[in-house]
Amino acid sequence: MCRLFQKRHLLAHKMGVIDQDYLRNTTDPGAIVGRKIRLAADEVGAAIAIIETLGGSLYAGVLRPAG
Hints:
The protein is an all-alpha fold. It is 61% helix and 0% strand. The chain has three helices and no strands. The termini are far apart.
């Protein structure tokens, strides 16, 4: 999930170009500075599943009565 958010950052702020910060913050073995980041469909699907689970847990936690 952390790597996916790092990829999102590159896409949103660096036109998808890998920089040194991305290499430092991830363990992406195929990443090369100056090249475009690759984002696979299965990565997006896995991220959606994780975010849905996290959101459901947070929502359930808010609705649970304090005791």
